[in-house]
Amino acid sequence: MRKLVPFVVDVVLVVVFCLLGRRSHDEAVLGAGLLRTFWPFGTGLVLGWVIAVAVASGREGASAAKRFDGRTLWPTAVIIWLSTLIGGMLLRAVSGQGVVFSFFLVAASFLGLFLVGWRVVAQAVRTR
Question: InterPro entries given for it (predicted)?
Answer without folding.
Answer: DUF3054 (IPR021414)
